[in-house]
Amino acid sequence: GSEKSCARVHVLPKSLARGRNGKQEVLTPVVQARRKAGLLYGTLLPPSRSRSRSQLLNSLTKKQKKHLRDFGEEHPFYDRVSRKEAKPQTCQLSESLDTSSSESEAESEPEQVSGYNRLLATLKDVSKEDEEEEEEEDSVIDETEMNLEDGDSDISVEEETAVASTDVQKNAALPADPKGKDGHGPPGTSEESPEEFTDAKHESLFSLETNFLEEEREGNCSLKALQDPFAQHVNKELKEKEIQAVATNPKTTHQLKWPILGQLVFSSRFQQLETFKPPKDIDLKSLHLQKPLESTWIKTNSQFLSGPPNSSSPFTPLQKELFLIMNSYRDLFYPERTALKNGEEIRQVYCLHVINHVLKANAQVLANNSRCRSQKLGVGDDDDFRDQGLTRPKVLIVVPFREAALRVVQLFISLLEGDSKKKIIVSNKKRFNGEYGSDPEERPPNLKRPEDYEAVFVGNIDDHFRTGVAILQRSIRLYAPFYSSDILIASPLGLRTIIGGEGEKKRDFDFLSSIELLIIDQADIYLMQNWEHVLHLMNHMNLLPLDSHGVDFSRVRMWSLNNWSKYYRQTLLFGALQDAQINSVFNKYCVNVQGQVAVRNVPMTGCISHVLVQLPHVFQRMEAENLASILPQYRDAVMSHTLIYVPSYFDFVRLRNYFKKEDLNFTHICEYTQKSGVSRARHFFLQGEKQFLLLTERFHFYKSEVCNMLQATTRGQEAAWTCTVLYSKYDAQRLAAVVGVERAAQMLQSKKNIHLFITGER
């Protein structure tokens, strides 16, 4: 054939697939697929004139030569097709060669279907939805990739085919999840994750090493750097003696009362403790928000604003005070986050802080890339370019369910897009919506639950997930590999299965080494899942990585190289209650150099006021070391129908074993009980066949109500009902949450061991 026409050659039979020495040839999967399709494309070298043959070889790029050497043909992408129609040319095979009937038919009949289409048909097809997504959302990315020069990369056909398919589930950064580490709640709330998908297609477009920032934007950033809280925080220099003194320094505290947050406790283990009060008015320009957040935030947050949105009042009163603390890069513990009242309002403001932090951090890296490119090698101080950590992930958001992760990503998109007519690029958006969204029809239609239950367990409540998000200016890459991500969104269980434990071969926690912003949202739910996963995560935060992961050490900040990252990490902790275990995490693991702020409002009334049923509540203080002195009073005929609510699963097991040993007439329900067992136990207890019903706190959390579910079926039945609470001096915090702090103090100090409350009275 000539350079103006494309010739095609038919595949030799499988029996003739031999190498040069006559040995059996090892066929790659792509070649096998092509042979299965029946056609093999390639540009034939002229049969004569060795000079023209060598000229053609010299015209090939390194990539084309490699493909020709590996497969004996050129890639079909480089076929030279003339504008004029040219008939296919066939290669005459030797008579001794065994030709198949399909080949003879192909020689005599014109080709109706493209051989390349046949090839694609033999491979794993991309779904129609993914193809539509690539056309709509990734058009800019595809155009960039198609315009790459021949010598830019050396990728084989197998790699190109794998990259083109969005169904490839390759994940080198995330190993397969080990089994048997669940222990987080009732079966069915966590599905077993298949092999995870990561986006390998857009690696170069979202790489911080190969992208640059325009000079104008670089100049604007440098002008505000001196006053920017982000720059002040990351550029703050600590001394060795200050770090050594942290372990021995007493914590300095100071209390302030803010208008909305209430009683705040400022604390720090470093010498200087600075406090501040919120201003009456706040302007977006004074907050040093990165573009385009000044314009997009007002529209994104408009649903929570009472008046018309404007730059002078862009926050709700709660959001304003929370963001002022966040923007000062202090650690924050807010224990009054509820799903019904202010959950979404708080999610909005911490997502703003996350995007603002990531955009500033990446803009600094891209600006320094431009400076390095413009300056000569060896000119300038190397410390001027230290702008990153040992690994790229800088933000970790821990949420309990996939629905929460979905809402976080939707807020990211809204904050970057705003009301702009030009849509931002979001790769793998449809896949993400499918895996993290939910189908309303899956919910049982007759299921009735309280309002707070509906708010917590809305949408997809799978609690085993983790995903990476990369952000570059106004583009978002979902399912980014962990070490190519800026933001990690995961559940405690999802992180636990990749962090692993001591002695496990497949474990990884290097991606936590340079986390600068840690957000733990809805911490009270983790108490009902598995709090050990949270503690395991905190013990692996900001450790030195075991591998370099391709980092340029000349660009790494000195405090990161010194293993001081935990002193620069900001932790935002949100929950619905004051709990000793949550308080312990905040006090033990939060050592930010900027200090800590904890909201410490004491409950005055307690949640007992939310019980609407008329019911006597008996609070009995325990002085005994065991339950043996308490249980006998419940064996009387009057107490023949007793439900025992046990907060701890371990106490539930001990109590169940004790009941079996004493041969008591009881049944039990926990979070691991099958549906049939639950129905049977409820039936026996309702009919009076069982005197006692043991119930765990986690089953109550996931499945049922207790006090407000009591409804009399006959008149006078209410008089026989009581609710008895056993407490000791170690339950002071929980008791205060139920009855209020003043009553709790009286009950703990009183000489009487029994106290009575009656709810439901008008």
UniProtKB/TrEMBL annotation:
Query: Where is the protein localized?
Result: Nucleus, Nucleolus
Q: What does this protein do?
A: Component of the ribosomal small subunit processome for the biogenesis of ribosomes, functions in pre-ribosomal RNA (pre-rRNA) processing. Essential for embryonic development in part through the regulation of p53 pathway. Controls the expansion growth of digestive organs and liver. Also involved in the sympathetic neuronal development. Mediates, with CAPN3, the proteasome-independent degradation of p53/TP53.
Q: Which residues form the UTP25 C-terminal domain?
A: 608-703, 704-757
Segments of skewed composition (Low complexity): 44-60, 94-103
Q: How does it assemble?
A: Interacts with CAPN3; the interaction is required for CAPN3 translocation to the nucleolus.
Q: Specify the UTP25 NTP hydrolase-like domain's residue ranges.
A: 329-597
Recite the UniProt keywords alphabetically: Developmental protein, Nucleus, Phosphoprotein
According to its UniProt entry, one GO biological process term is: maturation of SSU-rRNA from tricistronic rRNA transcript (SSU-rRNA, 5.8S rRNA, LSU-rRNA)
Bias (Acidic residues): 128-161
For molecular function, the Gene Ontology terms on record are: rRNA binding; U3 snoRNA binding
Residue ranges of the region described as Disordered: 44-200
Query: This protein is called what?
Result: U3 small nucleolar RNA-associated protein 25 homolog
